[in-house]
Write a structure and sequence with these properties.
single chain; rod-shaped
Length: about 300
């Protein structure tokens, strides 16, 4: 081929695309950055922009540091404010505590004063209650005393014995009255017996043939008037029974019979038989004399 022919041959056609150096995908030949994977095809070209990029980066870093410093300053200021608030709250709380302590002390003092006053009132009330209880007890005792005195005067042996106990009790509040009442009863008993001849229904039994134990048995189950008749019959009619045995019978009546009328009747015969000098109702004195002297009686 001639030179002319060669010179007239068309230039080789350059391809319009090329492959990405990283993802190997087809991209425009002149593209500096792969639009598929985003990688630059010639990174050395980026160095051209460094003189423009670095100042911008530095400026951005400075701005960032300034912003960070501002934020830190605000945080520090906020913390300082919070600390001041906390200190102020603590001081206020301390003042409140002091006020509360003072108020608590004041309340404790008031409560103590109230309690002291209450204790005094309780003590006064307690004394009033004790005085009231004492008065009630005295009233009850006086009522009982009056009842005993009345019963002792109307033939109640138990009442008579209780009255006798009170006359010997120095702690009894009505002892003097009891002594006076007892003396009146004793004096009234020291009169001659006006009644005699009490009839005993022996029911066709000869009483002169009854033994002393049989007479005792008849006496024990008999009513008051019959007991009076048995005493009179035994003392006056049964002289066949020894005086000592008849006096022992009378002493047992003085000791155990619940009728003061019967006891007074037996006491007259006992005084007559022993000559002890005591009034008929001097039961204690009769029995003490008997225990000391019965062995001398035949």
């Amino acid at each position: 081929m001639s030179e002319e022919t060669k010179s007239q041959s068309p230039a080789p056609v350059q391809p319009e695309t090329s492959k990405c150096k990283y993802c190997k995908q087809e991209i425009p030949r002149e593209a500096s950055k792969c639009y598929r994977c985003g990688e630059y095809q010639n990174k050395l070209r980026l160095l051209v922009f460094l003189p423009y990029v670095i100042p911008s980066v530095i400026v951005l870093l400075s701005i960032f540091q300034l912003i960070l410093a501002c934020i830190q300053t605000k945080e520090a200021h906020k913390k300082n404010i919070d600390a001041s608030n906390a200190l102020r709250i603590a001081v206020s709380a301390s003042e409140d505590v002091n006020k509360a302590s003072v108020e608590a002390k004041r309340m404790v003092t008031e409560i103590k004063n109230i309690l002291d006053g209450t204790e005094k009132k309780v003590a006064e009330l307690d004394r009033s209650i004790q005085d009231g209880n004492k008065a009630v007890m005295e009233l009850k005792l006086l009522t009982r005393f009056d009842t005993v005195v009345i019963n002792a005067q109307i033939d109640d042996r138990d009442a008579y014995d209780q009255l006798r106990v009170w006359t010997e009790d120095d702690s009894f509040p009505f002892q003097k009255t009891a002594i006076q009442t007892m003396q009146t009863i004793l004096d009234e008993s020291d009169f001659p017996i006006f009644q005699h001849g009490f009839k005993v229904p022996w029911n066709a039994v000869d009483p002169n043939k009854l033994t002393l134990p049989q007479l005792r048995e008849a006496y024990k189950s008999a009513p008051e008037r019959i007991r009076l008749g048995v005493i009179e019959f035994l003392w006056k009619n049964r002289v066949d029974i020894s005086k000592k045995e008849r006096l022992q019978f009378l002493a047992d009546v003085l000791k155990d019979d619940k009728s003061l009328k019967v006891v007074k009747f037996a006491g007259h015969y006992f005084s007559e038989g022993t000559g002890d000098g005591f009034v008929p109702l001097g039961i204690k004195e009769h029995l003490e004399w008997w225990e000391k002297n019965k062995e001398t009686i035949k």
